[in-house]
């Protein structure tokens, strides 16, 4: 099965170097003021790093589609928690109090 | 009335489905390359009785660990939800709080964990290639790096205590937006504290694996526990990958970072 | 394949022998029995708290207990019944026992984790009992902040840890079931040949995995606020109590589906068996379990209608709550259609089936009243809500649990119980239940708040009726203790298939041997294949 693929060391080292570089990137970007963009950039870098870890270090690319679905499903489910909860707070001002 | 017959026979949700890889009375095939496909004939002593092949056991274990990691995602996710809401409500206090954190130590810890992920994956690879010495070396390195992380964390926490930044009766209420900064530090301690607890559990896990590796239990035909422990370790790394920018780097562009 | 039970064969009950072999078992069937004993104990504990509540409510004055004591009674009734009885009940007993056998596996994917889940349950229960005896808990099972995190003088911290720990029992069970269903089905056991009970357990497991960790961190945050002075939900420190409610109900609404979905799975099995007929619309019933599990995660805001939640968000939650009723209705219609022109016999499981269908329907329909935001403003926190959820959880889930317990008792224990005793129990439970909870709909409609132990005198008649019903209900639940115990001692030996039902579990002896099957089964017929004369058409 797929688990018998043995990733070469250089792939792992390349991923490692990429992660370190991205860490430096996130630090450097944070020291500059990009206004509201700082947060999305930081998150984008973090997601990229996480994806590298998941795909290469955790070997998800070699796992079954089921395992991949499970992993992605977990992250997706968080967006339900975040999105719907924030939709409460962000929409409270939309409809006024009845009677006023 | 619906007729569920053999037309469904090759359908199963999820690839790598059981039907193709199931042992039938007669068939055996290449899906378990390199290992015996006849469950009963599989003499690997590590094969548990309720599984019929090492492949099935490894696949089930990997899937099981990923399902567990999903629960961890939701567990940390609850704390991220708290972070998101209060950052939305109190953005200035969040920046003020973040400026009290030591970015250098945070960055160092990030690097340390990334290194430990590399050594971890090399330990798994050593098990896959039946290298006992490789496993031992890399597991020890991983544990050492994990310990460094915790030591650095300890020093960070100690600094917070000194500067009266621990929420509760001793919190420095003279700070601007003190209550909201206290909220920031509550979340800081909760998130990094729970993360650190997971690191400690990870170290315990690594110690167990190290002892088993020392005894020569893992090789190319059986390395499931190493792989599965590696997944856990990488996940703890991923959590920190998100914690670092979200907690430490909010005010970095304002130039101030203290201890 | 069929094997007639041979007396010489050792069942899972006999071999190996001794207490240690039970406490260190890896056999899913033994773990199921361990759970059965534990949850029955907690059912009794929760029932005693209920008795305390109902006795107080016999009179309009709050004269039996102090207000503080009454707060503890209803809180602990809720905590014990939900976390220590209902949530584990069907999954940990019937699910653990039957799921591997139903799909043709020798055990669950992770037997030691299964045993661990029981020990975690026991640990969590012990911690919570420590809280009960050491100050109690008076926050309501919902732990609302800031009362729970700041103001309450009871053992909130301990109880929070107890609930936290117990959650992992649920998580590990769900994890085990998911991996088992995906990876350990016997050859030929495709997804669409699986018993609907397995589909329901699978859907339940999804909910357990995705929801329980959130309540775990939530109660841990409450603990941290209380014990470590961290601030999260305390408004005097900038915290938001409504955030707690969001986090809490993100789990606790799906939790009610953890409680009902397995019961629906049991119902599918029982309906097919007592009607001797293929379940009508198998595919619809299977997918409706998944639909309930998924939609159930999108509706939690209907618990927050009056909490200052955005009205706009409330509207969306209201609509989706209406939608989540649809798959439940689909199941109910399909069970009814299964029984229509089926060959229904009046065995004891049939009684529980009919009881469930009627009571669950009432409970479900009253949920629609509460889903309507405009109505909920008046009905929230009234006895209407109490009646609604008891109709579903007791009239629905517990009836299904009892039905399943009876139906599979011969398989699990190898003994036949008294049919007349069982029928009497079912009738008493049905009558007692309705007498207990139907008046509460009326009381809620008239405005009686929940969690109050004093009320205006004009409501006494209905409250007395309710308490009377509770007494009958208690007798109905006590009866099985007697005839089940009697069956273990003096019951007739059960054949492999006493009900003439279809399913892999009925092809193994009663009780089954330790590894379930002598030869690995190969499945080549659909589920509920009740018409043996029908040709299995090979496409």
Please describe the topology of this protein.
The complex is a heterotrimer of chains A (100), B (259) and C (539).
Chain A: H1 9-31, H2 38-57, H3 65-91
Helix pairs in contact in A: 1-2
Chain B: H1 18-21, H2 54-89, H3 91-99, H4 103-128, H5 132-162, H6 178-214, H7 224-248
Helix pairs in contact in B: 2-3, 2-6, 2-7, 3-6, 4-5, 4-7, 5-6, 6-7
Chain C: H1 19-23, H2 28-56, H3 67-103, H4 111-133, H5 147-151, H6 156-183, H7 196-227, H8 241-275, H9 282-295, H10 311-339, H11 348-371, H12 373-379, H13 383-413, H14 419-446, H15 460-490
Helix pairs in contact in C: 2-3, 2-4, 2-15, 3-6, 3-7, 3-8, 3-13, 4-6, 6-7, 7-8, 7-9, 8-9, 8-10, 8-11, 8-13, 9-10, 10-11, 11-13, 11-14, 13-14, 14-15
Low-confidence regions of chain A: none
Distance between the termini of chain B: 71 Å
Sheet with the most strands, sense and barrel status of chain A: none
Mean pLDDT of chain A: 89
| Number of structurally distinct domains of chain A | 1
Average pLDDT metric of chain B:
84
- Structural class of chain A comes to mainly alpha
What's the Cα radius of gyration of chain A?
A: 20 Å
The best one-word shape of chain B is elongated
Report the helical percentage of chain A: over 70%
Structure description:
- The complex is a heterotrimer of chains A (100), B (259) and C (539).
- Chain A is mainly α and 100 residues long.
- In chain A, 70% of the residues lie in helices and 0% in strands.
- In chain A, helix 1 packs antiparallel against helix 2 (38-57).
- Chain B has 259 residues and is mostly helical.
- Chain B has a domain at 76-252: Four Helix Bundle (Hemerythrin (Met), subunit A) (Up-down Bundle), CATH 1.20.120.
- Chain B has helices at 18-21, 54-89, 91-99, 103-128, 132-162, 178-214, 224-248.
- In chain B, helix 2 crosses helix 3, helix 3 (91-99) crosses helix 6 (178-214) and helix 4 (103-128) packs antiparallel against helix 7.
- Chain B starts with 17 loop residues before the first helix and ends in an 11-residue tail after the last helix.
- In chain B, 51% of the residues are buried.
- Residues 1-41 of chain B have low confidence and may be disordered.
- Chain C has 539 residues and is mainly alpha-helical.
- Chain C has one domain (34-507): Cytochrome C Oxidase, Chain A, CATH 1.20.210.10.
- Helix content of chain C is 66%, strand content 0%.
- Chain C has helices spanning 19-23, 28-56, 67-103, 111-133, 147-151, 156-183, 196-227, 241-275, 282-295, 311-339, 348-371, 373-379, 383-413, 419-446, 460-490.
- In chain C, helix 3 runs parallel beside helix 6.
- The longest helix of chain C is centred in the first third of the chain and has 37 residues, at 67-103.
- Chain C is globular.
- Chains B and C meet through helix 2 and helix 6 of B and helix 6, helix 7 and helix 8 of C.
